[in-house]
Design brief:
This protein has 16 helices and 2 strands. The protein has helices at 3-16, 26-35, 54-65, 70-95, 106-130, 140-167, 175-185, 187-200, 205-232, 235-238, 244-247, 253-261, 265-272, 279-292, 294-313, 321-334, and strands spanning 99-100, 103-104.
Length: 339
């Protein structure tokens, strides 16, 4: 199964999840579709960058890896991506981020109130997508289990966002606290992509657990690698400013490591408490991170979770070997990614 082919199927299923509406409320749904890259700032049809669609792709691969039919997993794949975009809308509001994927964010264009409402609407459209499982031939008892676990996942993501917001400005946060946050905010949805896709594919308990574990570890590795890119990524590749997380004074894993290990951790803490970080402040922080070996440490943590994800795949058997191989290739392709 090629990724470009599955992208078309995923997006077609996402589009089919939107209700037919009257003209009075058409703009409400068009604003949601702006977030998805299907409309421009004037809400005219567009084909903007929609992200990697990694999570829904993992749903389809996990379903096949368990021996199932990916057509039955398409509603879940669509729902996973729609939920991810719902979280991004609200995340942009809470972080006051003005751009996303190179475009103005929803709230920046249409205000906070409409931004919140647009995100809420997209969450419900995600549920509408999920309820199409019965039409795709998923047995009722399986669909009910998936719906229940799906809602538990969304709640975990909200817990993660709660922790993220709670940690802002708290320089006493340790690595365990940080991992507890990203295991919910980022990894939970990737774990659901793997595990719930396997359940739809008819996986037994051991295989479903292996694919949940795979997704959890891959999600942790993905976020930790993002922390590296947020400081040392190439702007020409990432599309983000150099050392952007330092200018924002984001409490990512490299900073947590340096605050605990660097000889100049007091100086780093002083800069992080400033209202604004200057170019000189950022250079100073980069020097402290280098002296503390924070980049190498964090890349090692990401490599550990990548290895754990690959080890979980070794426990998957009895399904489609080609799909397992593709999951392995996806995982290996994310090791040391630059964007």
């Amino acid at each position: 199964m090629k990724h470009d082919i599955s992208r078309i199927a995923i997006q077609d299923t996402m589009r089919a999840s939107f209700p037919k509406v009257e003209a009075r409320v058409a703009r409400f749904y068009a604003m949601q579709q702006y977030q998805l890259g299907w409309r421009d700032e004037l809400l005219a049809p567009a084909n903007a960058v929609t992200g990697k669609l990694l999570r829904p792709y993992l749903v389809l691969l996990a379903c096949r890896a368990a021996g199932g039919d990916m057509q039955q997993a398409l509603p879940l794949a669509a729902a996973i991506q729609l939920v991810h975009d719902f979280t991004l809308i609200h995340d942009d509001i809470e972080d006051q981020s003005e751009t996303r994927r190179g475009r103005p964010t929803v709230w920046k264009l249409w205000g906070l109130a409409q931004g919140i409402n647009t995100g809420d609407g997209l969450l419900i459209v995600a549920h509408l997508a999920l309820h199409r499982m019965r039409e795709a031939g998923v047995p009722a008892e399986v669909a009910l289990e998936v719906i229940g676990r799906f809602d538990q996942t969304i709640l975990a993501v909200c817990e993660g966002q709660f922790l993220d917001l709670s940690y802002e400005g708290d320089l006493s946060i340790g690595e365990a606290d940080y991992l507890a946050m990203i295991s919910r905010k980022t990894a939970a949805l990737v774990a659901a992509a793997g595990g719930l896709g396997a359940i739809i594919g008819g996986a037994d308990g051991a295989t479903a657990k292996a694919l949940f574990d795979f997704g959890q570890n891959l999600g942790l590795a993905f976020q930790i690698q993002d922390d590296v890119l947020g400081i040392w990524g190439d702007p020409a590749v990432t599309g983000k400013p150099v050392a952007g997380d330092l200018y924002r004074r984001k409490l990512s894993l490299p900073i947590i490591h340096a605050l605990q290990r660097a000889e100049q951790r007091g100086n780093l803490a002083d800069v992080y408490r400033k209202n604004r970080a200057s170019d000189q402040d950022v250079k100073r922080m980069l020097d402290i991170l280098e002296q503390a070996g924070s980049r190498g440490y964090v890349e090692g943590v990401a490599a550990f979770y990548h290895a754990q994800a690959l080890a979980a795949l070794d426990m998957v058997c009895g399904g489609d070997a080609a799909a397992v191989a593709e999951l392995r290739a996806v995982t290996q392709g994310l090791v040391g990614r630059r964007s």
